[in-house]
Design goal:
This protein is an alpha+beta fold and about 190 residues long. The protein contains nine helices and five strands. The chain is globular and about 60 Å long.
Length: about 190
């Protein structure tokens, strides 16, 4: 018979991301963040390849990225409102963890499994931050999908890409509840 963990299940049933634009300081200390990262690193990882790594982006680094977005908007193919939204994602943040997908060559573990592990570590990081009492949000954006931008500004090798930018901070407002998936419309039961 399984041993339930009702508190963990209740957390998962009620968890919600906090919009990054509502997050302010303070942010987790280095020790607090290392605990969150330790929890996130316990994600499923077939073959124990660790096909991801963490890049901690503190306030000054985020301002530098905001400036880089502004300077390279044309190269990135973004302008106007989208450019401002992308720039402010970095400029208005105090802390973000970039989860860098870093697939490893493996005869046994397909790259798709490594990609799924990188996505899983993003969710684990988001949930660990929320469980620790912080506000958190998982974002990406066109800038971090650009190979030149991520190589020049996010230390990504040619085979690496950004699976997520997990913004972490203090939530300063609670957004209204949003509709959740209709379980019946997305679930198929196969009994035979």
């Amino acid at each position: 018979m399984p041993t339930p963990n009702p508190e963990a299940l209740e957390f998962l049933l009620t968890r919600r991301s906090c919009p990054a634009k509502t997050l302010t300081g303070p942010v987790p200390s280095r020790d607090q963040l290392e605990t969150i990262l330790t929890a996130a690193a316990r994600t499923p990882d077939h073959g124990k390849l660790e096909p991801w790594r963490f890049l901690i982006l503190e306030r000054d680094a985020l301002r530098r990225l905001a400036d880089a977005v502004s300077a390279h908007g044309d190269t990135l193919g973004i302008s106007g409102d989208e450019l401002e939204k992308t720039r402010s994602q970095f400029a208005n943040a105090d802390l973000a963890v970039a989860v860098i997908a870093s697939p490893k060559r493996s005869a046994k573990i397909p790259e798709i499994e490594q990609t799924l592990s990188a996505g899983a570590v993003c969710l684990a990081l988001l949930n660990a931050a929320l469980a620790a009492g912080w506000g958190a949000n998982w974002l990406t954006g066109r800038a971090v999908h650009d190979p030149v931008f991520r190589a020049g500004h996010l230390t990504c090798a040619e085979n690496e890409w950004v699976a997520g930018l997990i913004h972490i901070g203090t939530e300063n407002s609670t957004p209204p509840e949003r509709p959740r998936p209709d379980l019946a419309s997305i679930t198929t039961w196969i009994s035979e």
